[in-house]
Fold:
Amino acid sequence: MTNIVKSTLGKRFVALLLLLSMITGTVVVSRNLANAAEPVPLPTFNIPPVSAEFEASEKPNVLVIATGGTIAGAARNGDKTNFQNYAAGTYTMADMVAQLPVHKTADVSTFQFGNKGSGSYSIKDLYDLSLAVDTALATYDSVVVTTGTDTMEEIAYFLDLTVRSEKPVVVTGAMRPWDVIGTDAPANLYQAIKVAGSNKTKWFGTVLMLNDVIYAAREVTKTNAHRLDTFDAPMFGALGYVDDPAVRIYRAPARAIKAGTEAWATPFDLKTIAKDKLPIVEIAYSYQEAGGGAIRGFVEDGAKGIVTAGMGAGGISSKMSQARSAAIQQGVVFVTTTRTGSGTMYDSGTSSTIGGDNLNAAHARMLLLLSLAFTSDLPTIHSWFQSFGTGDVEISVDENTVLTTSLEVEPVVEEPAVEVEVPTPSVEPTVEPSADPTPDPESPAPLETTPVEEPVGVR
Structure:
């Protein structure tokens, strides 16, 4: 009898343990599923609501999102004649807009995102900025983003690739600080608001406007360190101009042709990824006998992608080529661009390196960075560079007729390793070379260098 009772108690104890185990397992699985289903933590922004006065107005509501830069700079020591000695990111946008004449074509509100030079912002900051722009466009008709000009083209292209709204986004800044003589800052701010309020760049993605000229973010680059007309699109030119009172648009970026379709939106929806998913992507510049140390160093630092700014049609040195081959074996993705400033790098969709089309190295880096944040599949990244990365035009006349400038099969252009071929002499030399090796000349001692201070003004 005692044995039967012990056996029964033992079975009940085992059953209880199994039940507890099942419950614990269920809880763990439930927690894992809950964690997997947890939404991405997104930043919040205190975007000012559109005032009742502005709601009742017939003018479009434009929000200026300020990040600082030269446009918000103040002359140092009260010297308003020195365009280079200033403190960037000093004035707030609310103060700057208050100093402008009341805008004739828009009702203007402001939001201070930050107040520093453009080069001081991280990629994670740009993630937040893009989401702030989309948040604002949920209630405002358009947005102007003010930044420093040093990395303005990169910031603008990041926004172009990530902002989900089709409403106008206009990036502007200045080459001279707000309070010096001859400053371009107030005029650029006023004109950018005019472009945004005109609604003429809706579906264009992000555009850049300085010095009364409007450019597509994908195509524009800074070309001079000091001149007011520094921005240009070398291969394509301007989209249009701002005059008084007109905003004139003479051509549209290829993306605008996809207006109103699902193909218009890029795959880079930042709301679906955490900012920690944004990878490290670097740029390696090629030149005469360039070493492979930069590429190796980038890989060691954790780079998942590298853009090469190559010579001519994208060629890199033999040492860089060897370092690139080794990095590819470690899973690093490469994109080919040219250091010349213009020219198309073609892509077959199958090469171990991706052709950057006519994107400059800075723009290609932004596209590669976002691509790697959303996929590790190389063919998919190829396809994104061939579609969203190009300025290629395709027009559907009807369901049976499509006009396109694309090649049916793009030629594969592998980056050649630059090597000098020594010609073989056709005539034997009359003098036998010495059997003793000629000693190499001593390498000169390294020169001492004095550190160069960065300029005080940060654009």
About this structure: DSSP finds ten helices and 20 strands in the chain. Confidence is low (pLDDT under 50) at residues 1-11, 13-36, 407-456.
